Amino acid sequence: MAKNATIHRCSECGWETPRWAGRCGRCQAWGSLSEVAPAATARVATSRPATSARPITEVTAQEARGIPTGIGELDRVLGAGLTPGSVVLLGGEPGVGKSTLLLEAAARWAAGGRRTLYVTAEESAAQVRLRADRTDALHPELYLAAESDLGVVLGHVEELAPTLLVIDSVQTVTAPGTEGVPGGVTQVREVTSALVRVAKRRGMAVLIIGHVTKEGSLAGPRTLEHLVDVVLSFDGDTHGTFRMVRATKNRYGPADEVGCFEMAADGIREVSDPSGLFTSDGAVAPGTCTTVTLQGRRPLLTEVQALVVPSHLQSPRRISTGVDPGRLAMTLAVLQRHGQVKLHTRDVYASTVGGGRVDDPAGDLATALAVASAVRNESTVQRLVALGEVSLAGEIRPVPGLARRLDEAARLGIGLALVPPGAGAARVQPGGGLRVVEVATLADALRAALAPEGGAVIPLRPRRGAR
276-449 in CATH: which number? Predict the structure, then answer.
């Protein structure tokens, strides 16, 4: 049978198939397959290597050590700063502040006496200068070029020999002689491959801004994330000021670290202690409870608020902001079945303070206590945190990183922590007078958290089998 003369490639993820289909077999996108000519297969001849292979014990690791950028939260996510020759891809929603962050990083890098080239392919040089004036990101070693042609960009690199190159953005740079439109699969792959080759050859760090799709993933082929060394995502509500940088891939450091920032009129600021942003000041009100979530390896004190009102609908509303909707629905079902809290005729609204997110299973117990507090119109115990996953049987299950969570709670002056039984709380020695109480079931947690007036904790009933 003769081979097909053409292949069909998905414009979203790069998946290839010999026959056309209406839907991509990998990313399930509709109408994304287009006919392209197959690449010619060439035989590769052997050649003499430029440098001989050496024993690993004779290879120095000094060249792979990172250089601090001057932005502590960004260095925290990268590991130890920018590694010479590394390529970092930063993605995020439009308007979240990607260009502002990298312009600030470029200015801090140039302030260290290192030549920096900032290439903008989306804005004019005058627009970037206005932003630099507003954020105080001006330095003589920071060079600016408004170019969208890859050949011209590489020409600037050869002329200036920078130690850091910033590309804003990779979807708007075109590679001459390559098929496809700017931002297409082939163009993005070729531009990124060229930048990676130049970075490795010159020992130059490269920061690339990438667009995201409407689903929130990086636009372009999946191989784009495999080509680069570090993949960062810049998250945050565009209507708020809080931002987070997360590492989803990092060849030079941890891939579960989080950096916190705050957008201001004069640029972007680091937030070294963000726990206070997600809690409200003043006395504890009915319908509120505090938990400690783990964002990467960083514990954050987060307050969950709930509002429960009678419903006039056949199917009561379940609306959440910052709380995972699926976990909220499951927690409400367990609360009604095992906590004797009637919710089938009431609308439930759950939210977090300050734009925080509670998608950690450890926040289940705090969500349940906040809802129960709103139903009974009773406040929880003052200075309380609740940590635990609520199972469908009404049991409180252990959560990871309990020691870090309790240390953060003690540091912020929390007085009482409700934790799962057998979770190692006895081995945790937090300071600040934190009292740790183990609760086995949701009913035990409700009795311990919803104290009478005066703030005394209701004694827990002995667990079955306890002496």
Answer: 3.30.230.10
